[in-house]
Amino acid sequence: MSNNTIKQIPNLDEIGIINAKIKYQLSADELHQKTLALGQGVESASGALVINTGTFSGRSPKDRFIVKDAITENEVWWGDVNIPFDPNDFDALYKKLTAYLSNKEIYVRDGYVCAEPKYRLNVRVITETPWANLFCHNMFLRLKEEELEHFESDWTVICAPSFLADPKTDKTRQGNFAILNFSRKIAMIGGTGYTGEMKKGIFSALNFMLPVNEEILSMHCSANVGADNETAIFFGLSGTGKTTLSADPKRKLIGDDEHGWTKENTVFNFEGGCYAKVVHLSEENEPDIFRAVRKGALVENVVFKKGTNEIDYSDISISPNTRVSYPIEHIDNIQPGLIGRNPKNIFFLTADSFGILPPIARLTPGQAAYHFISGYTAKIAGTEAGITEPQPNFSACFGAPFMPLHPTRYAEMLSQKIKEDDATVWLINTGWTGGAYGTGNRMKLKYTRAMIDAALNGELNQVEYQNHAVFGIAIPQSCPNVPSEILNPKNTWSDKELYDVKAVELARKFQANFEDFADYANAEILAGAPKI
């Protein structure tokens, strides 16, 4: 949509941005070309725009705040994840930020989130750079031109990477910040160019409003629909395969990251695009995502192969968190309307670098709630400074940094929906087998896909199961197109006694992590814990 076709450019004076030169609702191509003209990006061989996000190539959780006011004071689970911010300090910092953007060339985009019309939320995005605006064009749902004339925003996102707060006077931790204000309905971001802060800001807002106001379970998950019109949901932290496994040519994609599960038993995408990790991306393993990296896509913090503009997906010298955002239409097989019905299979994905958990296991409702609250995966050596061996990574609800409410509130909603809708929950380990990272090997993607296919097709309903000796989860003893010997992880270890020792060690890590939640959990959830 060209800037010239828009009849009325919004007036930002009323929100404190004065005399700005507003570039309103530029098309993806216009934003692409503007970024190139400013020298802020380079076009790759595939046509995608490549940019560097600067100092920050990922989120900064310790610099994410929520304004503590009458709306949030008694609802938010305050602590290290949800850090309170004073309303007066917000107002003062907001005034400085809007003054900073006044008289500058800025980029404004109107869109919305929540594909279910009943729950639609209009969002206005104001960005300092054209590529940040392209990110929001890709990630938020796009308006038709006729919808712009009477557009009224429900929330505003303001992002200014080059504006730094003064921690002493502005009460931030350091120069960068991401602050949510539910009374003023503003997500304010400064000092960081990492685009994910914008999408996660709105996601966090929805994770508060939808459960509290609409009885909708908000989820950090991907989802797709089969030919039987049954929906599958995939929970998982970064690097576990959430995006990869939901992009299945046999099934229609609803979305890859953020969804709501309604009282009417529908699952709807919050977004209009995908934000996928591209480390070691290949056409062979992830053809849908690989082919989505084309004109209109925005690729972050990657390196070109020497002497070319061809992306080297194996090079993580800038950051291990290399990513691409693209409109969901870049995927061939998407679900019309981005809404699914009748969720019947739920997958909890983990990349267990300790090599303990089975590649697939069926969970009871209590175990499902326990593992949902735990939100386990494991970091491998080398992915972050100082990590020299596998480290457990627990993130409640598979998305703790974005969950303003206490995790048990989301877990109880999920448990209720599992029972009401007779859904089956599976734990999928996309991580290591035959030993921990450095000794064993990563589970082959083709085997993981075969196991998920078998679960979705009902082929695991009739097979024999055996409970894991420590975690108690039910392991199928056979699965089509998967070698039976890899289904029980202990069988893949050469040192069986060492496996038993390490399984108990991991179980103790689960128990230690759950101590923060035990007082809030009911008996059924507590019964889902590993037994030592």
Please explain how this structure is put together.
With 532 residues, this protein is of the alpha/beta class. It is 26% helix and 25% strand. Strands 1, 4, 5, 6, 7, 8, 9, 10 and 11 form a 9-stranded mixed β-sheet that branches. Strands 12, 13, 14, 15, 16, 22, 23, 24 and 27 form a 9-stranded mixed β-sheet that branches. The protein has a 5-stranded mixed β-sheet with strand order 2-3-18-21-17. A hairpin with a 7-residue loop joins strand 28 and strand 29 (441-442). Helix 9 (365-374) runs antiparallel to helix 10. The longest helix has 19 residues, at 196-214. The mean pLDDT is 94.
C-alpha end-to-end distance: 60 Å
Major sheet characteristics: 9 strands, mixed
Overall shape: globular
The percent of residues in helical segments reads 25-40%
Record field, number of beta strands: 31
Q: From the alpha carbons, calculate the radius of gyration and give it in angstroms.
A: 23 Å
Write the layout of secondary structure elements.
Elements: E1 21-24, H1 28-37, E2 42-43, E3 49-51, E4 64-67, E5 83-85, H2 87-101, E6 105-113, E7 121-127, H3 130-139, E8 141-142, H4 145-148, E9 155-160, H5 167-170, E10 177-181, E11 186-190, H6 196-214, E12 217-225, E13 231-236, H7 242-246, E14 252-255, E15 258-261, E16 266-269, E17 273-277, H8 287-292, E18 298-300, E19 303-304, E20 311-312, E21 323-327, E22 339-341, E23 343-350, E24 360-363, H9 365-374, E25 376-379, E26 391-394, H10 407-420, E27 424-429, E28 432-433, E29 441-442, H11 445-456, E30 465-467, E31 474-476, H12 489-492, H13 496-514, H14 523-526
Parallel strand pairs: 1-6, 3-18, 4-5, 4-10, 7-9, 9-11, 13-23, 23-27
Antiparallel strand pairs: 2-3, 6-7, 6-8, 10-11, 12-13, 12-14, 12-15, 15-16, 16-22, 17-21, 18-21, 19-20, 24-27, 25-26, 28-29, 30-31
